[in-house]
Structures are given as structure tokens and as C-alpha cells.
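User: What would this chain look like folded?
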Amino acid sequence: MSDSQGNTTEASTALVGSKMRQAVPPRRQGGARRVSMREVAQQASVSVATVSMVLNDNPRISKATQIKVRRIIDKLGYRPNRLAQSLSSQYTRVLAVLLPPLRHAFSDPYFGELLSGICDRADRLGHKVMLESAKPDFLRERKLLELFERRFVDGMFCLGVNDRHPFVKDFAAAGFPMVCVNNYFPDLNLDYVVADYRSGAEQVMNVLLQLGHKKIALINGAPEAQTARDVFEVFTARMNDAGLETDAGWTADGRFIEEGGAAATDEIIDRHPDVTAIFAGNDKMALGAMHRLVELGRSVPGDVSVVGFDDIQQMAFVNPSLTTVHLPLYEVGARACELLVQRVRGKTDKISERLATHLVLRDSTSIVSGRS
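Assistant: Here's the prediction, encoded as C-alpha cells.
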């Protein structure tokens, strides 16, 4: 027998074990014998099919039987062959997370909170998580859809996607289970779970206007993201309602990074040196703005109040501590995971949830100074 024929035989034995069982049960590393599904069934006094349905969370199995079988599984230390199980089951119990190809994405607090919510909830629901990067070759070679077509995953989360990522239209057309996490596409029939950016922006503008600010600038990022457009629209509407200036000179693109926030602050100060408040679309840009204002000899909040958007943990410990909108990013990730699993299991209602946000008042904002 050639090596290739031997490998084929071994693979077949592993995948159709009920028909081609080895004479000697395989052993775990260290010599311990691997427990079979048949032994679990015998101990629990049920059929092998019942054990299989319990492992696949089949709703036809009563709660009492599920508890009994799982107790025997734990007692015997049975570990199912997930590959064979996925081939004989409707589900793989694997969910993919698609991230933008950004440097240090995994260390970014924003993505870290979303991923923590997804992974923690997936573990509780008995699913594994696979991470993928939306690199050009990955998308060009259709590997994204191939994950579904070859049954590697049951569903997918898309993080950091926006209008510059046309591949999301492929999902809308293909109908695979996918949830956009913390952004949404009004013109596409895509499921999403998002923090309520509009409400957060309303709260920021309420406070700044109540503090007497009339010369308010906005540092925003990624206008191709619907959530960023939501913030811009609220800012513009509230300034117009108050009869205040809203020309393009009062806004700048900070690219969602610290350096961008600093550069945007330079633009704003050059055009409007009398600015009294800066509203930044995320905490990184707010931090860059505060740093640059101090370099320019402006005190925060004495001369210029600064507000962020995210409430990443470190912002409570900068000096001055940052007033910001708390986004429930962990909860957004966890809820997206719950709903994606429901979609995989047959839920047909459109998923479109917004989680509440709230303003956290700290030391970077104050009543407008008398000079304005």
C-alpha cells in the first residue's frame, strides 16, 4: 500500500467511525484510552444517536436527558471528534471574526473590547472563534465566502467595516449568516448590532451648549462609516438649531488616531483660534487634541474643553481625565454573538439592535471662559 493510500484509509476511518471502527480503540497521549460515544451511550442507557443529538443541542432531546448524558460525558472524560461531528452535523460550531488589516488591531482597546465580548459569549454558547484579516488577497480570491461554501464556519462577525469595503455587498447577495459589529449599512439588508452613536452625540452637544459653548469644533473620522456620519449629522443639526456656525472650517478629519487628532487640532486652531470646545469622535483623537492644545499653550479645560467618544479605560487616568461617551463595546460584541448564533440556528427576523450609550463627565470640560 502506498503512503497516499494509507492516509486515505486513516482519514476514512476517522470520519466514518461508526462503519469502519478500528479493532483497538485509539489512545490519548500518555497511554490513556480514548472514550467512545458508544460507551457514553451505554453508561447513560440511551442510544448513540441520542448522545450525538445532545452534543449538537438538538431541541428534540428533553432537558432531563441532556443533563444525564452530559453528566456521563463529564464523568468519563469523553471528547468528541469535532471534525467528524461537523461533517455529520448541520453545524461546525465555529464562528469567524473578520478584522480590518490594521497594524496593532489586536492591541487596540476598541477592537479588544468587542473581541472580548464575542469570544466570552461564544465560549459560553459552546462555539470556537476563528480570526481572519480582510487583506486584499483574502478578499480577491473569495476566501471570505469560501469559509461558508466549504463549511469551515457557521457564521461571521465583521468588525471595522465601512463603505470602502465592497465585499459586504457579497454577504448581502449570498445570504450567509453575518453580523456587522458596531457599524451598519442602511442601504443593505445586513444584520447589525451597534452602540447608539446618535444618542451619545446628542448628550455631548447638550452638555457643551449648557456649559455656554458657542464655538464648538468637531474632529471626526472615517466619513465612510455610518456611525461617524451619525455623529456629524447630530453635531450639525444641534449647531444649526442653536444658530451657531457650522461651516467646514469647524470640522476636521482625525482618522481615528492620536496623531490625526493632533493634526486636526492644528487645522481648527489655524482657522478658528477662538474655539472653546472640541468634540472628538473617539478617545484617541481626543487624547491627541488635548496633547496638541497643551503644546500650543492652551489649557484644558480652562481655554478649550475636550470631549471624547468610547470611554476606553485609560481615559479616566489621563490629566485632565477625559469627559467622554461610554460605548458598551463588550456588550455589543456579546450581544452580536448571541444573535449570530440564533441566526445560524434558523432565526429569520432581521437583526438591528442599538445598545444605549451615556456621557461620562470628567475634568476635561468646564463652563466656557469669560473671554468667549
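Confidence is low (pLDDT under 50) at residues 1-31. If you want, I can go into more detail on any region.
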